[in-house]
Design brief:
The complex is a heterodimer. Chain A is an alpha/beta fold. Chain A is built from 8 helices and 10 strands. Chain A has one domain: Rossmann fold, CATH 3.40.50. Chain A is globular and about 60 Å long. Chain B is mainly α. Chain B has 2 domains: 235 residues, no CATH class; 126 residues, D-Maltodextrin-Binding Protein, domain 2 (3-Layer(aba) Sandwich). Helices cover 69% and strands 6% of the residues of chain B. Classes of the chains: A alpha/beta, B mainly alpha. The complex binds adenosine-5'-diphosphate and magnesium ion. The site of magnesium ion has 4 residues of chain A, from α1.
Chain lengths: 246, 390
């Protein structure tokens, strides 16, 4: 197991406002890390920093032993953004072809890979439809298929399960576990506790700070509770108590 | 490779967007045609003139195809007559005195009347002069005849008088019959203000529509997040900009060809210079508009905001593009024109179309347009940094 994503003493923000404080995390190859926290906690900011879209204010981010930001490295990352960024006047197939080529995959290869990626998210029958005729959930699934289509070493998924029904959610998790077993590294964000329970590692973020970190089982026993959700609530109360004491 | 894929995507998107296609290809032709007809109607304008007690010779001298004469018999005031009949003016004569009262709500009609009256007076004066000369000539002839009789009687001394006679006849006949032929360097006697305006209008129409469509297209990419998503792939920022530039550039090119060919063949506009120079100017102008549109869209967060930039970025350029001659502007205003891309585009368009300027003559303007392109491209590269730092 080699460490694929490494974040050390990261401080990040926009302009003068600081959004993330002292974030440390490591994701090893073949591991799934879930970033969990309420909306506005700073999950997307952290993901963007790991992707190299933002330069760290302080601290450092390395991916595959390369300091981020680094443009070439993006070829090895399959990314799913929180908001569906799709070309509405193109079909799903055309969107997959376009982003796949941008990722650096040859068109011929893409034609072979698209059915597989579409199958994971149950979109095969709808590939020829225009995206503007898609429902919200279908767009979400297409975004995930775009992240998967290049079969990348690293997957970074920002809220991949929002708007996806439970049955399909299970199917997606099965695929993610399969990918992890094959050595892919996966980092995803969520505010759904069920997702956290599926992950190998969990990092809880609240108000820009990491309040708890570890495997779900570790955390449940450490906080002496019965579920990941309770861990989050307890850790949150401790954070509030801490800041009130200051 | 990536640029080609981007171009292909932009073409597919555009071809499916029928409304934008229409805006890009039909709207410019529509606007130019509209202006053409608006200015065309101006040449056939007639002004009606009421005349009261005016000498009939003067009336027929004033009369021409632009002036419609109405005999006024009533004794009402000129103001009242104009008001009642909606005449452009009333001309009254009392003795030697002529009084012209003008409605003056339409200056072009006023101009027609004043001009016609002036022309009429000149015509009468020259006719009068001819009559005077003719009577004098007759008198002279009589005198000469008398003189000749005298000299004949006196014998051989009449040689000098005979030499003088034919030359005098000749000068009398030729003096009043001026034949004026007017030569037009550009256009013809049918030329209107439209012909002067057209080179500027072509440049403006190309600039405006390319600016608007490229700006809004990139804006859509920004607001839907596809630009952000695109920059999460290993594509270079330069490749993104070149992709947009070539993708929308293809449409700008087609639009430019369409507008130029339309104006030349449908309006039958005479071009003194080379048509290739016209294409060159407009293509450069379109690229300036494209890069500026991409750049300005950075500062807008909705399509409505993009439209709000039009009064700031586009409208002032019209004023400085030569519709009002720049060298007649206040001194402090003239340098403002020099920072407007359209000024250089329109200027060289006028030079090529109306003065037949060669590529060498317009090269400085083209060079400045190129500088605009380079500067806007560099600024676009910088603004992309906002989305991805590398
Ligand atoms: N582009 C931005 N400019 C300024 N502030 C931002 C920007 N994006 C996010 N923020 C702020 O950063 C904080 C964290 O946002 P985000 O990372 O999106 O949270 P999450 O993804 O966990 O919901 C929020 O307070 C948000 O208002
Ligand atoms: Mg988020």
């Amino acid at each position: 197991m080699t460490n694929v994503i490494q974040v050390g003493s990261l401080e990040q923000g926009y302009g003068k406002t600081v959004v993330l404080k002292n974030i440390n995390l490591t994701v090893n190859s073949g591991e799934i890390l879930a970033l969990i926290g309420p909306s506005g906690a700073g999950k997307t900011t952290l993901v963007s920093t790991i992707m190299g879209m933002l330069k760290p204010m302080k601290g450092d981010v390395t991916v595959l032993n390369t300091a981020m930001p680094n443009r070439q490295l993006l070829a090895k990352i399959g990314f799913m953004a929180q908001t569906d960024a799709l070309y509405e006047s193109l079909t799903a197939q055309e969107n997959l072809m376009f982003f796949g080529s941008m990722q650096g995959i040859a068109r011929k290869q893409l034609r072979e890979k698209i059915p597989h990626a579409a199958n994971i998210v149950n979109l095969v029958p709808d590939l020829k439809k225009y995206v503007k005729d898609y429902s919200g959930g279908m767009k979400r699934r297409l975004s995930l298929a775009i992240a998967l289509v290049s079969d990348p070493e690293i997957l970074i998924l920002d809220e991949p399960t929002v708007g996806i029904d439970p049955e399909l959610r299970q199917q997606i998790w099965n695929e993610l576990h399969k990918l992890a077993k094959a050595g892919r590294t996966i980092l995803l964000t969520t505010h759904v506790m069920e997702d956290a329970e599926e992950a190998d590692e969990v990092m809880m973020i609240r108000n820009g700070a990491a309040i708890a970190q570890g495997t779900p089982e570790q955390l449940i026993s450490e906080y002496d509770v019965h579920s990941v959700e309770e861990v989050f609530l307890k850790a949150g109360r401790q954070q509030d108590a801490h800041t009130n004491n200051d | 490779m990536r640029i080609l894929t981007m171009i292909k995507r932009i073409l597919t998107e555009m071809l499916r967007d029928k409304r934008t296609l229409a805006l890009m290809f039909i709207a410019p032709l529509f606007i130019l045609s509209l202006l053409y007809f608006l200015f065309q109607s101006n040449t056939d304008q007639t002004a009606s003139l009421g005349v009261r007690n005016v000498n009939t010779t003067l009336v027929s001298a004033v009369k021409n195809k632009h002036v419609k004469i109405h005999e006024v018999t009533s004794n009402q005031s000129a103001e009242k007559v104009i008001h009642d009949h909606d005449y452009a003016g009333v001309l009254s004569q009392s003795g030697d005195h002529l009084a012209l009262t003008l409605q003056n709500s339409d200056q072009s009609k006023t101009a027609i009347l004043k001009q016609s009256l002036q022309k009429g007076q000149i015509q009468l004066k020259s006719q009068a002069a001819v009559t005077v000369i003719k009577t004098q000539a007759k008198a002279l002839k009589k005198m000469q005849a008398a003189l000749a009789a005298v000299t004949r009687q006196m014998g051989q001394a009449g040689r000098n008088g005979q030499v003088g006679r034919p030359s005098m006849d000749k000068s009398v006949k030729n003096a009043p019959n001026y034949q004026v032929t007017t030569h037009y360097l550009y256009g013809s006697s049918k030329s209107t203000y439209f012909n002067t305006l057209l080179p500027i209008l072509i440049g403006f129409v190309v600039f405006f529509f390319v600016f608007l469509i490229s700006g809004i297209a990139l804006l859509r990419e920004r607001t839907t997040g596809t630009l952000n998503r695109l920059l999460a792939t290993p594509i270079k920022r330069g490749e993104v900009i070149m992709g947009y530039l070539s993708g929308y550039g293809i449409f700008a090119l087609i639009q430019t060809l369409l507008v130029v060919l339309f104006t030349i063949y449908v309006f039958n506009i005479q071009i003194l210079g080379s048509i290739w120079n016209i294409f060159l100017i407009n293509i450069l102008l379109a690229i300036v508009a494209l890069t500026l549109g991409l750049l300005i869209s950075t500062f807008a967060s909705s399509e409505f905001q993009m439209v709000q930039f039009i009064p700031i970025v586009v409208i002032p350029q019209i004023f400085f593009s030569g519709i009002i001659p720049v060298n007649q502007m206040a001194d402090w205003l003239q340098p403002v024109a020099k920072i407007m891309p359209l000024y250089y585009g329109a200027q060289s368009m006028s030079d090529v179309i109306q003065k037949g300027a060669s590529i060498v003559a317009i090269a400085p303007s083209l060079g400045i347009l190129l500088i605009f392109i380079v500067v806007f491209l560099a600024l676009n590269m910088l603004s992309m940094r906002h989305y991805r730092q590398v």
